[in-house]
């Protein structure tokens, strides 16, 4: 049984891998905290959001590419989930977070968003990836945490921005759970 349908409202977004058309969703059954008729966020295709359990995309959140949201996961705010990312279990992705690439987020302990930070006063997202390591999305940068530190040092030298990003990295290392746990549904 389907729990949502497309409303007919669309928008085009521009991502590193190209242009994508997203569709607004609307609940057609009641589940979790979602009521019949509630408007949801934006998805590219039905494969992005499971019709099972209580997973939902709220507000202006966007999910596209091969990304999947399922289980009881919630994506809301201005969050963006794309690439081969998976958000599942009881995970919440919110704010201005960008979960992308090969992210595997199934707990709130697997993602950290810090902002506004740096020279652009923007949000930086740290998340557990499928390699059980921390990946960073900051501006146009997407990569492993060690490469992020290299890029920060190269770009900002010895400024306050370098110190702020290094501190954010240390917080991410403390906050994000990288212990081996079952990643099966």
Task: Offer a quick outline of the entry.
The chain has helices at about 145-155, 160-175; strands at about 5-15, 20-25, 40-45, 55, 60-65, 70, 75, 80, 85, 90-95, 100, 105, 110-115, 120-130, 135-140, 140-145. By secondary structure, it is an alpha/beta fold.
Key descriptive features of the protein:
15% helix, elongated, 4-stranded antiparallel beta sheet, 37% strand, alpha/beta, 2 helices, 6-stranded mixed beta sheet, 185 residues
Structure notes:
This protein is of the alpha/beta class and 185 residues long. The protein has a domain at 52-175. The protein is 15% helix and 37% strand. The chain contains two helices and 16 strands. The protein has helices at 145-156, 160-175, and strands spanning 4-15, 18-27, 39-43, 56-57, 62-63, 68-69, 74-75, 80-81, 86-87, 92-93, 98-99, 104-105, 111-117, 122-128, 134-138, 141-144. The strands form four sheets. The protein has a six-stranded mixed β-sheet with strand order 1-2-3-5-8-11, with no helix packed on it. The chain has a four-stranded antiparallel β-sheet with strand order 13-14-15-16.
SSE topology:
Layout: E1 4-15, E2 18-27, E3 39-43, E4 56-57, E5 62-63, E6 68-69, E7 74-75, E8 80-81, E9 86-87, E10 92-93, E11 98-99, E12 104-105, E13 111-117, E14 122-128, E15 134-138, E16 141-144, H1 145-156, H2 160-175
Parallel strand pairs: 3-5, 4-7, 5-8, 6-9, 7-10, 8-11, 9-12
Antiparallel strand pairs: 1-2, 2-3, 13-14, 14-15, 15-16
Helix pairs in contact: 1-2
């Amino acid at each position: 049984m389907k729990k949502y349908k497309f409303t007919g409202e669309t928008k085009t977004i521009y991502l590193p891998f190209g242009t994508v058309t997203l569709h607004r969703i609307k609940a057609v059954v009641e589940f979790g905290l979602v009521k019949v008729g509630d408007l949801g966020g934006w998805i590219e295709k039905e494969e992005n959001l499971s019709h099972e359990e209580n997973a939902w995309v709220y507000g202006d959140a966007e999910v596209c590419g091969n990304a999947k949201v399922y289980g009881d996961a919630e994506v809301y705010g201005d969050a963006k989930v794309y690439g081969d990312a998976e958000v599942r279990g009881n995970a919440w992705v919110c704010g201005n977070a960008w979960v992308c690439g090969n992210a595997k987020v199934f707990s709130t302990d697997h993602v950290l968003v810090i902002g506004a930070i740096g020279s652009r006063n923007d949000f930086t997202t740290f998340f557990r990836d499928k390699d059980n390591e921390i990946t960073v999305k900051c501006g146009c940068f997407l990569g492993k945490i060690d490469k992020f530190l290299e890029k920060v040092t190269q770009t900002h030298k010895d400024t306050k921005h370098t110190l702020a990003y290094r501190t954010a990295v240390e917080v991410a290392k403390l906050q994000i759970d990288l212990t081996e746990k079952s990643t099966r549904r």
